Amino acid sequence: MQQIRSHESVWQEFLEIIKDRVPLMTYNTWFMPIKPISLDNNRLTIQLHDPFLYEYLEDKYNRVINRSLVEVLGSGAKLVYEYSDNLNKNSQTDEEESRSVEEPKNGNGATSSKILLELPEIKQISFDDTGLDPRYTFDTFIKGAGNQLARAAAIAISENPGNTSFNPLFIYGGVGLGKTHLIHAVGNAIYANHRSKSVLYTSSDRFTSEFVENIQNRKVAEFSSKYRNLDVLIIDDIQFLTGKPGTIELFFNIFNSLYHDGKQIILTSDRPAKELKDLDERLTSRFSWGLPVDIQPPDFETRMAILNKKAERYNLQLTNEMIEYMASHVKSNVRELEGCLLKILAQMTLTNVDLNIELVKMCVKDISSTRIVNISVDSITKIVCDFLGVDEKKIRDKTRKSDIARARQICMYLTKSMTKLTLKMIGLHFGGRDHSTVLHACAEIEKEISSSQKTKELIEDIKRRIELTCT
Ligand code: ADP
Ligand code: MG
């Protein structure tokens, strides 16, 4: 994302933005004749042809200039005005001109002055503050039958945020199918093409923890207004907002305010809105105000296309046979396809083996078990405790308090089904219990899952969360 930019190009970008923000007369008379001189990090020096101009600009357009410059150069941008009264003398080159600034009285007896305008920090505008990942763009997103509608909706929004029938845009579908990629792509495109729009990407987890932090610092109003002032709000994995009333209430208000102002809202979820049972129904019904779109797992052709494109990016010379083998064995999602390519790359670099079909087969075989290997008993415990609101330390104690004991059983059950740990090892992890206790816990939870829909859903939710966090 970071590329070297010239003062001319920065100034040009600045002009394009400011043109829409000041009267045309002002733009033509005052802004057009200004010459950019140099760019030093995010310090842009411009040359004024009239000393009066400095006062005029500062007086009338200080805010809009600052804001626009920060949009081009990021927070901390500084604008330096330079005026020299021998500007019209042709004897000096631009370079000499700038140098003369260091010495207010130059050899020609001409006066020059340099005025530094300190820009106040303006939040949410520099790219770093958007939360967007520049790697996820439309260019790198492969179109296929499963994601066609979601992709089309995302593109339509990026061209006309807030003004399509996709407001809110609600994208749902399973893990690793490209939801996060797609919503970053929308954000990146809006950031690139509509500089005046403020965009923010966040996950519902981050939203929640930011909210809690702001409650503690008594800054909820500030937090809320930051969100209400956005043009585009993107929240990933909205299913994790469930069960947190304070956060949900605030999000509800922000949602209404943005929607009312015609601002674009983009959300993803791992399931359709009506299945977000723990979320307030006032909210889930609003999610369907726009056209909800789902993403389905990629079909064979799309898997082939994705593999081809990614192999090219990693500079892997795969034969058709290899690609076909992978595409027909790794079916569930794109993340696993990527994982497979990375595995091949890692094997080739670490063990110096040649790329051949045997290596590909081995990596494909490994890929389903890697997922399990990455999941640790600690992360399972942490996620279960988060979900159930139980103190993590108590899980390893002897306590038999019923909520702790149940959480512990769920941890044991999930550790058994999601890791390769033996019953004995699991018992050791949870306070040195023996293997029959673990077996009993697994049987209890299994029984509960088959008799109670609620438990079944709870366990599925926790599992999904673990998979999402650990893979
Ligand atoms: P989700 O948010 O649905 O769980 P992600 O957006 O995180 O899925 O996608 C997982 C990985 O797969 C990411 O690295 C992403 O770039 C890649 N990916 C998913 N779909 C596509 C696609 N259609 N084209 C290219 N890459 C994709
Ligand atoms: Mg995601």
Explain what you see.
- The protein is an alpha/beta fold and 471 residues long.
- It has four domains: 112 residues, GMP Synthetase, Chain A, domain 3 (2-Layer Sandwich); 168 residues, Rossmann fold, CATH 3.40.50.300; 75 residues, Helicase, Ruva Protein, domain 3 (Orthogonal Bundle); 94 residues, DnaA protein, C-terminal DNA-binding domain (Chromosomal Replication Initiator Protein Dnaa, Chain: A, Orthogonal Bundle).
- It is 55% helix and 10% strand.
- It is built from 20 helices and nine strands.
- Strand 7, helix 9 and strand 8 form a beta-alpha-beta unit.
- The protein is globular and about 85 Å long.
- The structure holds adenosine-5'-diphosphate and magnesium ion (MG).
- Magnesium ion (MG) binds next to helix 6.
Task: Based on the model shown, name its key terms.
GMP Synthetase, Chain A, domain 3, Rossmann fold, 5-stranded parallel sheet, 4-stranded mixed sheet, globular
List the helices and strands and how they pair.
Elements: H1 7-19, H2 24-31, E1 35-40, E2 43-48, H3 51-73, E3 78-84, H4 94-102, E4 112-117, H5 148-159, E5 169-172, H6 179-193, E6 199-203, H7 204-216, H8 220-228, E7 232-236, H9 245-260, E8 264-269, H10 281-287, E9 293-294, H11 300-313, H12 320-329, H13 334-351, H14 357-374, H15 377-388, H16 392-395, H17 402-418, H18 423-429, H19 435-451, H20 453-470
Parallel strand pairs: 2-3, 5-8, 5-9, 6-7, 7-8
Antiparallel strand pairs: 1-2, 3-4
The structure holds adenosine-5'-diphosphate and magnesium ion.
